Structures are given as C-alpha cells and as structure tokens.
Amino acid sequence: MRSLGTPFNRGSNTAAATLGRVSHLLVDMDGVLFRGGTALPGASGFLPWLQNHGIAFQLITNNSTASPEKNAALLAAMGIHVDLDAVFTSAMATGRYLERHAERGERTFVIGEEGLVEAVANAGMEVVRDPEGVSWVVAGLDRHVTYEELCMASFALERGARFIATNADASLPVEQGEAPGAGALQAALVATTGVKPLVIGKPEPLLLELGMERIGGSRDNTAMLGDRLDTDIAAAARLEMTSILVLTGVTAREDLASSRIRPNVTVNGLPELMKIWSTAKRSQ
User: What's the Cα-to-Cα distance from 82 to each of 14, 50, 55, 85, rounded to whole Å?
Assistant: First the structure.
C-alpha cells in the first residue's frame, strides 16, 4: 500500500509527468463538477475534454439515493452532459456485489431511498419490509427512515442476516449545517446488534475497483479525482492508485499540511487540471 504520506505535487512539471501516465479516470461529482446546485468553473467542458483526449472515465459517488437517470438529469440541469453508462453510484456497486455474492431472490431488507432500492431489486434480490427470513440488510442514506424500520433491520441482523452499507459517511452537508449521514444510521444498527457492515463506498476500495472494471482500467493507468482527503484520496491510496485533489470542494490547501493523506497531484480547479494535463499530452 502506498504511504499516506506520499508528497503531493510541488510543480506543474511533476504533475504533468504523473498525469501523462493516466488513461482512465474516476471522477467524484459533488465538489469536483458542482457545488450545491451550481456547476464549478470548467465543469461543462471537462467531460468532453476527457473524451477528446481518449481518457475513459466514470463518475462515481458515495451518494446512494438517486438513480443514474436522476444523477444525469441533475448534471444536465447544470450544463454538464453525460451518458448514463458513465454514472456509477455506491448503490449500483452494492447491487453488483450482491449479484456476485448472493443467491438470486434472497430476501433483502433495505434502508435507503429510490436509487438503492432500485439497484438491489435490479440485482435480483427480493426487497421486503419485514425481518422474517431476511438474508441481507442493505443500508444507505435514508432521509425518511422510521424507528420501526430501524427495529426491523436490527431484528434481521440479530437473526443472522448479512450487513452491507453503501457508504459510511457520518454526516451530510446541508444548508443549515451537518445532518446525519448514512453512517449515522448504520451506527444505530451497530450499537443495537454489534454487527458491523461491509462498506462498499469510499474510503473503502470496492467502489473504485468496480468503477475501474467498468472502463477497463487498472491501478497502474487509472487516477481518482476528488475533493476529499478522507474519502476520495484515501481510497486511492489504499489501492496504490494515482490521486488528484481539486480544491473546489471540502478540502482547502492548508488542510494538506496537517494531513497524513496526501494526493499525488493538487490543483485549484478543473481549468488548471486541463491545462497541466494538456501539457503532458503534448509531450508524449
């Protein structure tokens, strides 16, 4: 595993050399392409730029609440246009995991919103609303969850169901502050049952591994582009992948000085990234 203390780039030449080896890219969305409901500078032209330069990409997100169609529509409303097959959510990755590790038709209790319920059903599982005979409990962010549903999920886990979490983000940034995230809901189940989930999303590596698989990438030729040290960059470090930090989201440059988690390349925004990467392409 790459040391989490690997220095980030200290000049455009170093960054260009690193980017020159990248032919596949995993792209976080919130904080990279948009913030709130507004596209970030360079976002509308970034995906066409990748396509024009032959760089295969996937937009990946820990957010399990929305379907690929809704994610694409959200981006289109901000002037960012993407094909559905370029969107890969933690819900979809959870569905892929179930396809490979569960028996088709197994009873599954889901705490989550439309995107997760749809992904679990598409994986061939029977989504149920009671704990009887449940083989799997799948939990993501659910902004409408009830106490009764948490009870039923706990009962299923107590009876031996396996536990999967789409992601473990403890909080969810909203206009008023930090709201409970998927990890907060999962914490209630862990505290009740003592059963810990298998986590699919960042900073765990599975979401990135499955994203690379979708575009034919490998750890040697793929980079992770994100705005969070603790999820995007940490996940890449676990896989010994190249990581690119963009300072338009959660992380500020001063945060790097005190962090053990270091990206290989740090840029202020997408326009700077495209400029440096273009230099790398011309020198090849």
Answer: 30, 12, 14, 8
| pLDDT for 54 | 95
| Positions in the chain whose pLDDT score sits under 70 | 1-12, 284
Q: What is the structure's pLDDT at 279?
A: 86
Full set of structural domains in the chain with CATH: 12-62+202-282 (3.40.50.1000), 102-199 (3.40.50.1000)
Alpha-carbon distances, residue 274 vs 39, 159, 198, 215 (angstroms): 16, 52, 36, 21
Predicted local distance difference test score (pLDDT) of residue 283? 73
